[in-house]
Write a sequence for this structure.
């Protein structure tokens, strides 16, 4: 029997390997070391007896990242009022917080809500008590752009603007340019609040290229963009705001010494793990890029073309993040749309697979991380009176896949976020 019959198990094994490699707690533990009262990180050392230690963790991976830090540094956290704040989209039921931790749920991702603003206000209030002898440790991961928010526009207007940007098809770089200029927590805002204390940040990258200014919209890093750049993005996508905001686009950092900003995980690490697992399964594997961007349906067609040209028993891997220019109110996500476009391009091509999934386990407003397709997928849909092209054009990828068996990739929230991965497999006879 052809190995193609086991393609679902192969894809699941590769996806599991990617998620294990992107484990947030393991990433923190690899980079953060302590000896007595001295903290070692990124070639720098910090004497923890000089002042107080504050911990701020924000993002989809905030809880596991904070847990790893608390195992190493828990006894060093300031006693009394909360010395650490963890802001996450979901809080695991088995999570036992440190006595000094203040756990805040901000579940409105990807649109900031009242809970995001309230949690951010708590962070600012906590950091208002820092002195030059203190150290602030920031843990940043995907989702921080929505979970840590203090917009300079009225919240309702800010939410509407975010919704329009999400539907516009703009790149994450363009989206974050607007966020950095119109949200006081972004573009170095968190670092400014931490001053005059020293701060260091550990970031799990969810953006293509892993630019520090892009991860979480750069709460600890000022970007090079200006308010004019943000307004240009809004104009390009015909998004209007009621008034021109007043924003200082050149933040300063009154710190006694240079900060440490370290990227501890990204999609490249996850893609390498996929390649390693593919080789264990007997495939020749190659990472083609970890800087993939573009419209999801176009990327899907390209992925299908690559898959068709692979030699037998080969696997190719793409890492990055696509966008979807939404028209209407279809239910899907960028990875499912990528997969559906690939399925159409692969129709009737034998023994060929394309799988696309989000490493955070959440593809758009659905319960799926993505989907896997073959040359038989379109026919499976047709047998259920589902037209793949119609569903793609209406952005109803999830509606299509949930009606045919064994195509959705469902992991649940993974606690990590390092972009998306596309896996292409060609089987031999």
């Amino acid at each position: 029997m052809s190995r193609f019959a086991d393609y679902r198990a192969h894809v699941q094994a590769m996806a599991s390997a990617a998620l294990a490699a992107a484990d947030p707690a393991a990433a923190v533990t690899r980079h953060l070391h302590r000896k007595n009262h001295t903290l070692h990180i990124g070639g720098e050392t910090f004497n923890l007896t000089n002042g107080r230690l504050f911990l701020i963790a924000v993002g989809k991976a905030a809880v596991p990242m904070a847990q790893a830090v608390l195992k190493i540094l828990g006894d060093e956290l300031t006693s009394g009022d909360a010395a650490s704040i963890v802001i996450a989209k979901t809080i695991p039921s088995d999570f036992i917080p440190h006595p000094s931790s203040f756990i805040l749920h901000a579940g409105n991702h990807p649109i900031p809500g009242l809970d995001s603003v309230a949690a951010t206000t708590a962070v600012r209030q906590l950091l208002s008590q820092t002195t030059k002898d203190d150290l602030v440790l920031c843990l940043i991961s995907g989702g921080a752009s929505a979970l840590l928010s203090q917009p300079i526009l009225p919240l309702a207007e800010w939410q509407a603007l975010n919704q329009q940007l999400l539907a516009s098809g703009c790149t994450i770089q363009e989206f974050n340019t607007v966020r950095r200029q119109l949200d006081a927590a972004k573009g170095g805002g968190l670092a400014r609040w931490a001053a005059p204390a020293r701060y260091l940040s550990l970031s799990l990258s969810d953006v293509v290229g892993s630019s520090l200014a892009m991860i979480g919209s750069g709460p600890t890093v000022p970007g090079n963009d200006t308010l004019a750049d943000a307004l240009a993005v809004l104009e390009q996508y015909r998004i209007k705001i009621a008034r021109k905001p007043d924003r200082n686009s050149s933040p300063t950092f009154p710190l006694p010494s240079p900060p440490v900003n370290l990227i501890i995980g990204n999609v490249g690490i996850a893609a390498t793990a996929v390649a390693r697992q593919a080789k264990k399964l007997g495939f020749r594997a190659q990472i083609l890029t970890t800087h993939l961007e573009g419209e999801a349906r176009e990327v899907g067609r390209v992925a299908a073309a690559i898959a068709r040209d692979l030699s037998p028993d080969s696997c190719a891997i793409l890492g990055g993040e696509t966008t979807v220019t939404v028209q209407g109110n279809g239910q899907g996500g960028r990875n499912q749309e990528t997969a559906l476009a690939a399925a159409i391009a692969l129709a009737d091509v034998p023994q060929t697979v394309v799988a696309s999934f989000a490493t955070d386990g959440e593809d758009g407003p659905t319960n799926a991380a993505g989907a896997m397709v073959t040359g038989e997928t379109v026919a499976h849909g047709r047998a259920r009176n589902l037209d793949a092209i119609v569903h793609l054009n209406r952005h109803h990828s999830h509606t299509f896949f949930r009606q045919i068996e064994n195509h959705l990739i469902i992991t649940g929230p993974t606690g990590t976020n390092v972009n998306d991965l596309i896996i292409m497999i060609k089987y031999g006879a």
Notes: Residues 200 and 260 are 5 Å apart (CA to CA). The radius of gyration is 22 Å. The mean pLDDT is 90. DSSP finds 15 helices and 15 strands in the chain.
